[in-house]
Design brief:
Strand order of the largest sheet: 3-2-4-5
Radius of gyration: 15 Å
Distance between the termini: 20 Å
GO molecular function, one term: 6,7-dimethyl-8-ribityllumazine synthase activity
Family: Belongs to the DMRL synthase family.
InterPro entries: LS/RS, LS/RS_sf
Shape: globular
Pfam families: DMRL_synthase
Structural class: alpha/beta
Number of helices: 5
Number of strands: 6
EC number: 2.5.1.78
Amino acid sequence: MLFITRCPTVLILSSRYNTFISDLTLDIVTRSIKGVFAYDIHWYYGIFELEWLINQSSSRYHAIIVLGSSIKHNTNHYKWIARPCFQSLINYPIVNLVFVSETSEHAWSRAINLNSTSVLYPVASLIGSTMLVLV
């Protein structure tokens, strides 16, 4: 089946946890896709609602980008959050920009090193795998 669209729409799901990282990555992602794709932004509070949001939104959007960050700090609780998050995300065709980091500095470094190429190519690839995009 071939779909033809003139303006692909992307959903950006951004975490409300570690918002300093999410806001930075959201800014980079929106600047990267602005003018190329239409986009909507939805915020999520926890990983357990993330799979439900993706399920509900997958038919309305051409691609989904998930933003978030889990930082270890001094405990290992991040393993209990990161594992179910990645297990739920792997079941969907999405662009995964959820960072799992040992320190806040490492999370900042990963977020700052995002550029438009590292965002645009995966999104375009995801959209191009299922439809023909007319410019």
